[in-house]
């Protein structure tokens, strides 16, 4: 496995929207698609939604076919990574001739590179403070090109808006975990987290049609919205996890079920690729 991209973060320069960097990636690059091999590519909840929809699969089927899950040592949370394939450990969505076959729905880490987004939040602040670092992977020849981008231009060009917004909602959930001091979680808690954040179709079936009583606490218009809009469903799933695990427990009974120690004290969401 290649070193984690965090190893190549250039933290000497913190970039915000008007700051610039020089980079270009195109099929003419000698290294084209080299970076789509042997990756530890962590999938965020919204990455999974976009990819499963792109491939016409249920989230459960997508997760079974294309991902591995492990419990993060520090966080105690389930982490979903894309399984590489074949002897050359390539991304399952890479066509060696033409490149990324899911380009319009590629994960946020693929879109953000060569930047790494840091989203800092605190109790005292509304929203998040975001900034970026350049990730200088040594085999990437894109840094030899002469195209200059501002961070704002890069975000627009790569369609990062909806990804960043959904990743921030996920970050809010992780922050709630930190604030209540939840460390290791038991199997039931991990399952709740996985269902609400990653298995959006499983959550829909369980929440809207299953034995869960939580849906009776919601007004009909909310239930209608999450039944027809997958983005709303995912946001609701993450809020449901937050309420159930990190805000005094079950929405219906209010019983607390979290415990342990904080694992992400500074509230910074790291890059996933
Ligand atoms: S290594 Fe860099 S320049 Fe080459 S394809 Fe990957 S991102 Fe593009
Ligand atoms: S999803 Fe696309 S861009 Fe990302 S690693 Fe796979 S082939 Fe490369």
Helix fraction, binned, reads 25-40%
Count of individual domains: 2
Binned strand content: 5-15%
- Average pLDDT rating: 89
Number of E-type strands: 9
Bound molecules: iron/sulfur cluster
- Element string (H = helix, E = strand): EEHHEEEEHEEEHHHHHH
Cα-based radius of gyration, to the nearest Å? 19 Å
The gross shape turns out to be globular
Tell me about the biggest sheet?
Answer: 3 strands, antiparallel
Stretches where pLDDT is under 50 for at least 5 consecutive residues are 250-273
End-to-end C-alpha gap? 13 Å
Q: What kind of assembly state do the chains in view correspond to?
A: single chain
Structural class: alpha+beta
Helical region count? 9
Strand order of the largest sheet: 1-8-7
Could you explain how this protein is built, in words?
With 273 residues, the chain is of the alpha+beta class. The protein folds into 2 domains: 5-159, no CATH class; 168-246, no CATH class. It is built from 9 helices and 9 strands. It has helices spanning 45-55, 59-66, 108-112, 151-157, 161-180, 187-197, 200-209, 220-228, 230-246; strands spanning 9-15, 20-22, 67-71, 78-82, 94-95, 99-100, 115-120, 129-135, 148-150. The strands form 4 sheets. It has a 3-stranded antiparallel sheet, with no helix packed on it. Strands 2-9 form a two-stranded antiparallel ribbon. It has a two-stranded antiparallel ribbon with strand order 3-4. α6 runs antiparallel to α9. It is globular, with a radius of gyration of 19 Å. It binds iron/sulfur cluster (2 copies). One iron/sulfur cluster (SF4) binds at residues 36, 39, 91, 93-94, 100, 102, 106-107, 110. This is YkgJ family cysteine cluster protein.
